[in-house]
Amino acid sequence: MLALLLVTSHVQSVSAGDRELGQYLSSECVTCHQITGKAIEGVPPIVGWPEDQFEAVMKSYKEKERDNPVMQNIAGRLKAEDIAALATYFRELR
Prior knowledge:
Layout: H1 2-15, H2 19-29, H3 51-62, H4 69-77, H5 80-92
Helix pairs in contact: 2-5, 3-4, 3-5
């Protein structure tokens, strides 16, 4: 039973994004998206988003399913781990 708990906690920690990495990577995001969580000039807030929603939106920009050249460019440079880290960081800013 203890082994199962250890494996489960390890899997959970691997799937969660690295908050510190997310904070580091967020500097580019917050040049447009307000860290306060307020929308401004048509730029939606991303603070407090559920991680799965954030990751899905970023993936759709990365795959050019959403039309926004700036976001497509930014998302296109990010690895899956980077997106997960950003998702964790912005969710925790509530």
